[in-house]
């Protein structure tokens, strides 16, 4: 008899999963009701150490803590104070940072005990902040010096980047448990509120730790939070480089047809036949945006085709630097097409940096000159639909490409062809057909495989964690969220 | 040389920014390279302003098509430039009362502020307000029920549009609590947070990978097309 495969029977598979899940789940532990506030043990051996692999904004706090202690403690209050800024000593004035539930602060395993990571610490203070902390400085009407920086009596400083390091001290206060209202979840809301109010009137008992030695958070060589991102970037980068090398060595690479890019020649050809111009709009961001760079690669192709067909390409710009780059691009394209004499730099010009001023100009120009082909390539915002609808109303053939997800539906609705996200970035490789560039697209696919695996694993872990409430699954999910996706 | 130097600057600037992101000690390098970009962009602004003057002056002098618009552009440009640079009507800073130009050029009530608030802002708001009408005309075309996919799109759009208005809430407000998920406003939230978010994220992942690949091509000078041609 052939063994029955559960995979071929979805119902049985679901039933089995359900039974397994039910079996894995366990009843919540019963808690012993308290009758009076508990005396928490004093947190002993509190130590502050610099957090490894950070940007100098974290300090690790550790102290002695046992499972028995956790039962007696409700929360740990974490307090911090500044003791020194540069050469200036300051009388510590503690402030509450956070109240951490005792169970969350308890660390199991080899290094048992309490642990808390103090995050988002300042490495520098402005002069005004420093004056607020220090009474001597606050009352002073003479200039003062901290490290290399000299401040005037108002605490004003010309340099925005004070370089004085800050030293911190910490203390923790263990707050004991107080009686909780009975019958939680059974009583109606008003009764629960009354009980809660009564509970809140009972003052918990507290135990304060000793103050730590002063510590200055240090900057490490590598920001550990970005470790997983760094690994992913390296894998994708290396795979792109590998496929570029493979393509150079003659490995055949296939790329699917992208209708929007195929339409470039068609649009320019149509403009030539109609004796009208082509309008190319490279978005409204500057050259430091990758979309504008991608737009320039498409502009190179449009210009080259226009030069071959003897068509006119007009490029109004929203940024001066984009204008100069576009001029270089178009000039080189005309040169490559063997038509350097046909290049007219006056067709590539600056309009305004103002978003809607630029749109007003383009709209007016489109209505007056009626270009036969409009290309919208780059970063667009609210102006995308205004431009595309105006182009549509004058009957121009329109090709758009952007990586702004919010603008894509507008372009899809109003344009003939739209390059969606990654297609836009693939344009230069697609249009050039060079093996080097096609190889980079193949390398990009490795990234997609990584993302797909990550999606499946993440979805599976999250589902299991939610249904079974298994601590191991939750740990795995938290690891993915905190360490990989963070 | 004309090609090698820009490629080298691009690669150096790009790699510095990448390194600065991961290595805290080099964060200042990244900031410095971005300041350099701002400096270059500021110089390019002079080029842009000069180009604007050149283009529009030639249009006015040639009496070409729409030359009057060029005249208005030139007049507005020069007027704002003079008012802004001269800090016309701006009061001196309290700390430096002896220096007439020490005040903020955007001081409330000054001519530059007045021109910005009462000329530029209403004009830009007018342009932006046109978007509503363009959305209506684009929606009219996009939501024609030509095939199954278009019908799905139309139905979804209908739910979302109605669910975000008071009418949508009133229309399905009678539904009992156990069927509250079918109320239009809740259906809208469900569609936006489930289907829309999923689709959006798929596009975003593609874009992120595209940006990574494109950036690498530019940094390694594999893609030189933004400099004109691949040669």
Task: Outline the structure in words.
The complex is a heterodimer of chains A (486) and B (231). Chain A is α/β, with parallel strands linked by helices. Chain A folds into three domains: 47-123 and 165-221, Immunoglobulin-like (Sandwich), CATH 2.60.40; 225-252 and 437-484, no CATH class; 259-425, Rossmann fold (3-Layer(aba) Sandwich). Chain A contains 17 helices and 17 strands. In chain A, the strands form four sheets. Chain A has a six-stranded parallel beta sheet, sandwiched between helices. The radius of gyration of chain A is 33 Å and the shape is elongated. Chain B has a domain at 143-231. Chain B is built from seven helices and no strands. Chain B has helices spanning 4-22, 27-62, 67-86, 111-142, 148-163, 166-172, 184-219. In chain B, helix 2 packs across helix 3 (67-86) and helix 5 (148-163) packs across helix 6. The radius of gyration of chain B is 27 Å and the shape is extended. The mean pLDDT of chain B is 89. At the A-B interface, helix 7, helix 9, helix 10, helix 11 and helix 12 of A face helix 2, helix 4 and helix 7 of B.
């Amino acid at each position: 008899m052939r063994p029955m495969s559960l995979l071929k029977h979805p119902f049985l598979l679901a039933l089995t999963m359900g039974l397994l899940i039910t079996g894995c789940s366990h009843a919540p532990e019963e808690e012993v009701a308290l009758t009076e506030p508990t005396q928490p043990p004093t947190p002993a051996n509190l130590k502050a150490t610099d957090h490894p692999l950070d940007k100098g904004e974290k300090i690790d706090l550790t102290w002695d803590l046992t499972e028995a202690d956790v039962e007696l403690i409700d929360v740990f209050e974490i307090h911090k104070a500044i003791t020194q800024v540069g050469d200036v000593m300051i009388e510590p004035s503690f402030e509450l940072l956070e109240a951490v539930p005792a169970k969350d602060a308890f660390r199991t395993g080899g290094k048992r005990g309490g642990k808390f990571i103090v995050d988002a610490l300042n490495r520098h203070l402005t002069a005004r902040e420093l004056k607020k902390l220090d009474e001597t400085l606050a009352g002073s009407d003479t200039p003062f010096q901290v490290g290399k920086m000299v401040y005037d009596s108002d605490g004003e400083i010309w340099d925005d980047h004070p370089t004085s390091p800050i030293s911190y001290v910490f203390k923790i206060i263990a707050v004991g448990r107080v009686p909780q209202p009975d019958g939680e979840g059974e009583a109606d809301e008003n009764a629960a509120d009354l009980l809660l109010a009564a509970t809140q009137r009972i003052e918990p008992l507290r135990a304060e730790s000793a103050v730590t030695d002063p510590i200055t958070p240090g900057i490490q060589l590598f920001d550990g939070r970005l470790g997983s991102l760094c690994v992913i970037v390296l894998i994708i980068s290396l795979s792109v480089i590998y496929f570029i090398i493979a393509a150079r060595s003659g490995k055949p690479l296939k790329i699917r047809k992208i209708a929007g890019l195929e339409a470039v020649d068609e649009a320019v050809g149509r403009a030539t036949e109609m004796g009208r111009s082509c309008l190319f709009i490279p978005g409204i961001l500057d050259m430091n945006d990758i979309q504008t760079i991608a737009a320039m690669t498409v502009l190179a192709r449009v210009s080259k085709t226009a030069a071959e067909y003897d068509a006119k390409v007009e490029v109004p710009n929203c940024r001066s630097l984009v204008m100069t780059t576009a001029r270089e691009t178009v000039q080189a394209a005309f040169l490559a097409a063997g038509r350097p004499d046909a290049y007219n730099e006056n067709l590539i010009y600056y309009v305004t940096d103002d978003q809607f001023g630029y749109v007003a100009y383009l709209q007016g120009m489109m209505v007056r000159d009626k270009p036969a082909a409009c290309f919208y390539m780059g970063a667009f915002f609210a102006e995308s639909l205004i431009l595309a609808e105006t182009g549509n109303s004058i009957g121009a053939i329109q090709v758009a490409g952007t990586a702004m997800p919010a603008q894509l539906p507008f372009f899809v609705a109003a344009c003939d062809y739209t390059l969606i996200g990654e297609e836009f970035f693939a344009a230069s490789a697609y249009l050039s057909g060079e093996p080097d560039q096609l190889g980079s697209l193949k390398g990009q696919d490795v990234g997609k495989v990584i993302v797909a695996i990550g999606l499946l694993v993440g979805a599976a872990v999250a589902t299991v964690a939610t249904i079974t409430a298994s601590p191991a699954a939750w740990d795995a999910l938290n690891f993915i969220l905190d360490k990989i996706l963070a | 040389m004309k090609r090698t130097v820009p490629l080298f600057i691009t690669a150096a600037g790009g790699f510095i920014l990448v390194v600065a992101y991961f290595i805290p000690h080099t964060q200042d390098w990244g900031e410095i390279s971005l300041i350099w970009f701002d400096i270059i962009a500021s110089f390019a602004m002079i080029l842009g302003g000069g180009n604007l003057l050149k283009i529009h002056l030639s249009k006015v002098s040639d009496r070409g098509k729409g030359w009057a618009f060029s005249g208005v552009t030139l007049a507005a440009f020069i007027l704002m430039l003079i008012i802004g640079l001269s800090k016309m009507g701006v009061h001196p800073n309290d700390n430096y009362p002896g220096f007439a130009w020490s005040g903020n050029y955007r001081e409330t009530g000054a001519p530059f502020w007045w021109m910005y608030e009462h000329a530029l802002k209403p004009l830009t708001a007018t342009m932006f307000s046109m978007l509503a009408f363009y959305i209506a005309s684009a929606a009219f075309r996009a939501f024609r029920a030509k095939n199954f996919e278009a019908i799905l799109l139309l139905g979804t759009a209908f739910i979302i549009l109605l669910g975000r208005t008071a009418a949508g809430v009133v229309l399905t407000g009678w539904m009992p609590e156990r069927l509250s998920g079918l109320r239009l406003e809740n259906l809208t939230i469900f569609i936006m947070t489930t289907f829309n978010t999923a689709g959006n994220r798929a596009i975003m992942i593609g874009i992120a990978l595209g940006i990574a690949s494109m950036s690498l091509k530019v940094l390694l000078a594999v893609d030189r097309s933004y400099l004109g041609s691949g040669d």
